[in-house]
Amino acid sequence: MILDRAEIAQLIPHAGSMCLLDHVIAWDKDSIRCRSGRHRARDNPLCYAGRLGMLSGIEFAAQAMAVHGRLSGAIGARPRVGFIVALRDIVCGAGPLDDVAEDLTIDATHLMGDDARVAYSFAVSGDGRTLVGGRATVLLQADMTA
Known about the structure:
Blueprint: E1 3-4, H1 5-9, E2 23-27, E3 31-36, H2 57-72, E4 81-92, E5 104-113, E6 117-126, E7 129-141
Antiparallel strand pairs: 1-2, 2-3, 3-5, 4-7, 5-6, 6-7
């Protein structure tokens, strides 16, 4: 383990129960791998009617991208707000995410970007299968507050 949840929360604008990553387990200049058990947490703010939809995995991936950007310097100065402006090639498994018994593994690979926007490919896996994957483009707004 390289970083724990408290250290991750210092790197991204997500706080409290909205910080969805438990650990950064590996990273380099191009990619990051994180783990999380927060998909099983009853206080997960993404739950609706007591369930966590599979597409919520995209937010787990987005947070891994944000952490990678800070660790690698890929996004320059810390953005206070980032907006997912495009999702491509999304593959999504069936069933709610909170039914996945094991911790999630979140992988993200930096494809391109600058201080204003970044693109990553990502995969969220658990229970021996890919649950959600695809590509995301994020617009970074360093001058905005969350």
